[in-house]
């Protein structure tokens, strides 16, 4: 049992030396608790809260605050156990020389749960991040609201959620999930911008399997309920690292692409940008297969346009039909959104729409230009999608692109059919520069579908052989006249039809031209995105 009386002095103090000895004893108590935490965490192949912070920040830069905070609860025998820190390590540091504020739960203290004192600590950390305009990083390993502190614990979680919402779109909020995170400890990271999880040791859910069984009778496991695989498939997390080090490293790389706050710009890096067309650029001239039904690797396109081929994908295992992530062009961060023809032929379904919309809104909030690569046969039709609300949920794409004011450059690679054309960074939704490859097909739908819709009655009247011949002829005519980029280019909806090998240079020129773009939205309290 530790710290029975919160401010009782372990030594009699009359001299400065006595005061220093007193401080030293109190620090020893923290060290002893840290040693105990280390043994317990390491036994579960987990790091301690302080070790986790050290993994993330520049060596020696972490300044801990509120290490002497203790809870003041007297219920459930809590008066006999008042450990320093109250299950949270909080403070500020630098990451690659940039300021961050952060907190990390200590699961070895009451399951890392949050009561009043713990709540006051984490609120102080986020308030500090907001005051100075720096990113907030949370390291989560917690059972959520502390049962012993009842409604106070709930109140602090709700207050924290409100602070996170206030900070949303003002400072980047990044989280690590590195243990079983229940209730508020899972909700709060979900409210933020990006979540990275470490494999084997991490879970996130409303509550754990035991409570689920007690409440609903359902038997389930940590893995099924909110393990890394499930959390990625549901879109709850953006990255699953092989271990804590891997997850932390991903978060640091991501941070390198982000500004400190919504009034600043992401850091600019040196780049080896070649102003000449390279062999890598020329490879794009032969990338698109001759058959529309064949796919290619969209990462081959992205990697040839961003600096050094370095692309940090987010939510790689969720809605794989759309790819989102960060790269740089001439050293400046760019957010990439691209259809992936290898999954659902690149069609937009509900998950893809929600994934891309949230990513676009993040980029827009933090002054990150958006580069869109289009090869989309449209929204995914069908009973399942309609019943799950694709109209409401798919329209988020329209909303996100339409409200965004950051520079937007779009390249149509192949199909740009129907609603897919409209939402994937079209000129009509406010894109600034729209390129198309000669292989682009900008149309309401593909030739085969269009011919059937337009000639249904006429074709039905024909015999089988004649119908096949007529269909073939009509399809060829449609392809000739409509399945190309020129119909759109003639109207100025496409600014230039370019050779694929020119893409990197032209995208870079367009983004450079747009760097000081200014655009504002009409004054309003906030919009009403279909949620
Ligand atoms: C206080 C808690 C606790 C809690 C666990 N512990 N949950 N203490 N408040 N909510 C304690 C245990 O008593 C135990 O203490 C230690 O933490 C470890 O717990 P275990 O169950 O042994 O660990 P494990 O098997 O790993 O399971 C972890 C768990 C599970 C999945 C988190 O404990 C669980 O499901 N807890 C309940 C989670 C929950 O329902 N939280 C409240 C959600 S409501 P000892 O002393 O034995 O080490 C909420 C409000 C959200 O958060 C509001 C959002 C705005």
Automatic annotation (TrEMBL):
Protein name: Propionyl-CoA carboxylase beta chain
Domain CoA carboxyltransferase C-terminal: 279-524
Organism: Kibdelosporangium aridum
Transmembrane segments: none
Listed InterPro entries: AccD/PCCB, AcCoA_carboxyl_beta, ClpP/crotonase-like_dom_sf, COA_CT_C, COA_CT_N
CC annotations in GO: acetyl-CoA carboxylase complex
Domain CoA carboxyltransferase N-terminal: 13-271
A molecular-function term among this protein's GO annotations: propionyl-CoA carboxylase activity
SUPFAM superfamilies reported for this sequence: ClpP/crotonase
């Amino acid at each position: 049992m530790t710290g029975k009386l919160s401010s009782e002095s372990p030594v009699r103090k009359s001299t400065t030396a006595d005061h220093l000895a007193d401080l030293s004893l109190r620090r020893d108590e923290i060290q002893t608790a840290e040693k105990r935490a280390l043994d317990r965490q390491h036994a579960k192949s987990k790091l301690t809260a302080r070790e986790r912070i050290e993994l993330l920040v520049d060596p020696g830069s972490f300044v801990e605050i509120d290490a002497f905070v203790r809870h003041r609860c007297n219920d459930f025998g809590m008066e006999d156990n008042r450990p320093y820190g109250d299950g949270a390590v909080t403070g500020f540091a630098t990451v690659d020389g940039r300021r961050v504020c952060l907190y990390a739960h200590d699961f070895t203290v009451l399951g890392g749960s949050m009561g009043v004192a713990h709540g006051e600590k984490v609120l102080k950390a986020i308030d500090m991040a907001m005051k100075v305009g720096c990113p907030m990083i949370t390291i989560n390993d917690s059972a959520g609201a502390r049962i012993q502190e009842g409604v106070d614990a709930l109140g602090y979680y709700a207050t924290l959620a409100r602070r996170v919402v206030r900070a949303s779109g003002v400072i980047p909020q990044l989280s690590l999930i590195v243990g079983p995170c229940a209730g508020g400890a899972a909700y709060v990271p979900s409210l933020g911008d990006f979540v990275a999880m470490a494999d084997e040791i991490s879970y996130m859910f409303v509550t754990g399997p035991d409570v689920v069984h007690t409440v609903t009778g359902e038997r389930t496991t940590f893995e099924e309920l909110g393990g890394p695989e499930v959390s990625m498939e549901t879109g709850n997390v953006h990255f699953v690292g092989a271990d804590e080090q891997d997850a932390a490293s991903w978060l640091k790389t991501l941070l390198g692409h982000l500004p400190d706050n919504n009034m600043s710009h992401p850091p600019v890096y040196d780049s080896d940008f070649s102003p000449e067309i390279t062999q890598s650029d020329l490879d794009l001239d032969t990338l698109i297969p001759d058959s529309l039904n064949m796919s290619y690797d969209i990462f081959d396109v992205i990697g040839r346009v961003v600096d050094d081929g370095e692309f940090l994908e987010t939510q790689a295992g969720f809605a794989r039909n759309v790819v989102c992530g960060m790269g740089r062009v001439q050293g400046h961060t760019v957010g990439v959104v691209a259809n992936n023809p290898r999954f659902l032929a690149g069609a937009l379904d509900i998950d893809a729409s929600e994934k891309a919309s949230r990513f676009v809104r993040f980029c827009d909030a933090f002054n990150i230009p958006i580069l869109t690569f289009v090869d989309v046969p449209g929204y995914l039709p069908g009973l399942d999608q309609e019943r799950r609300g694709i109209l409401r949920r798919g329209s988020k794409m329209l909303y996100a692109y339409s409200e965004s004011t950051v520079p937007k450059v779009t390249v149509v690679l192949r199909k740009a059919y129907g609603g897919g054309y409209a939402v994937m960074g079209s000129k009509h939704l406010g894109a600034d520069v729209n390129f198309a490859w000669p292989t682009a097909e900008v149309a309401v739908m593909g030739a085969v579908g269009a011919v059937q819709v337009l000639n249904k009655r006429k074709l039905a009247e024909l015999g089988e052989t004649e119908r096949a011949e007529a269909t073939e002829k009509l399809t060829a005519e449609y392809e000739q006249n409509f399945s190309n980029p020129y119909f759109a280019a003639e109207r100025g909806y496409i600014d230039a039809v370019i050779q694929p090998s020119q893409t990197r240079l032209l995208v870079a020129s367009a983004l450079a031209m747009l760097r000081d773009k200014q655009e504002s939205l009409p004054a309003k309290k906030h919009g009403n995105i279909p949620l």
